[in-house]
Design brief:
By secondary structure, the protein is α/β, with parallel strands linked by helices. It is built from eleven helices and five strands, in the order αααβααβαβααβαβαα. The chain has a five-stranded parallel β-sheet with strand order 1-2-3-5-4, with helices on both faces. α1 crosses α3 and α1 runs antiparallel to α11. 44% of the residues are buried.
Length: 272
């Protein structure tokens, strides 16, 4: 079995588990969680990141800072599957006494930080990357951000900081699903072309289809291993609510939930 086929199968499984979680925790941001599944699958099942589930703070781990935490419940199945916590926890999301909430935080094994409101994750990552660089460490710092997050001024302060300090160990991944909380990003505040903007700030951008493993995974692997004298950004063009037609067509999908019968139909249609 080729690596691309393996990643596709894993992503399909993660999607099913994410929908199952939504069935018991309707408060999760399901559309945001669906857009980044291939990104997270590539990072972990594609062995881009170095990590140790038995020692979540091992010194030689790569860091993944989840800045769009509200939209990464799809990370839960991956972490459970890799041994960060028992799989049984996936059936308790959002329940009293559960370790997994509707919105993830740093108490969840495998999550590095809690970043407060949107726009803080990249700044936190810059501090970690600078500290690693000054210590002569080789580990990389990856950040997963949403495109709507780029409206925050703190993000652009961090972008300038990273370029000024030549943080070649820092990789920003933008889940560029083009819909923020209340509408299409082009209608709220058009940030395109993102690659040109990042180049103006002395970053090295790459644009890929964020659902195509043949583009996504090799580029992430290269960013992990190549030497760089400055920060890099992977602009992953994605679809919010990927795989759920009603959400894909809805500019308000960020705040929409699926009905239980819709989830059941989707799960039935995806059975092997």
């Amino acid at each position: 079995m080729g690596s691309t086929e393996f990643l596709k199968q894993k992503a399909a499984w993660v999607k099913r588990k994410t929908l199952e979680i939504h069935r018991i925790a309707p408060g999760i941001r399901i559309a945001s969680a669906l857009s980044c599944i291939e990104i997270l699958t590539s990072l972990y099942y594609g062995k881009v990141l170095s990590y140790d589930p038995s020692d979540r703070y091992c010194e030689n781990r790569d860091r993944l800072i989840i800045s769009k935490a509200h939209g990464t419940v799809s990370f839960y199945p991956i972490l459970a599957d890799l041994g960060f916590f028992p799989p049984e926890e996936l059936g308790r999301v959002g329940k009293a006494g559960a370790i997994l909430g509707d919105i993830p935080d740093c108490s969840v094994p495998g999550y590095e930080t809690v970043n407060g409101s949107l726009g803080h994750g990249l700044g936190v990552a810059c501090g970690i990357a600078l500290a690693l660089k000054k210590r002569g460490r080789k580990e990389k710092v990856f950040v997963l951000s949403g495109d709507g997050e780029l409206y925050e001024g703190s993000v652009w302060e961090a972008i300038m900081f990273a370029a000024h300090h030549h943080l070649g160990n820092l990789v920003l991944i933008i889940d560029n699903n083009k819909i923020c909380m209340l509408d299409y990003c082009t209608k709220i505040l058009n940030m395109e072309p993102l690659d040109v903007k990042f180049m103006a700030f002395n970053w090295k951008p790459t644009v890929v289809d964020g659902h195509d493993f043949e583009q996504l995974h090799p580029r992430l692997m290269a960013m992990k291993h190549e030497e760089s004298d400055g920060p890099r950004v992977l602009i992953a063009n994605t679809v919010k609510g990927k795989g759920v037609p009603r959400l894909e067509r809805d500019s308000l999908c960020h705040i929409k939930a699926l009905r239980p019968e819709e989830i059941d139909d989707l799960l039935l249609s995806q059975k092997d």
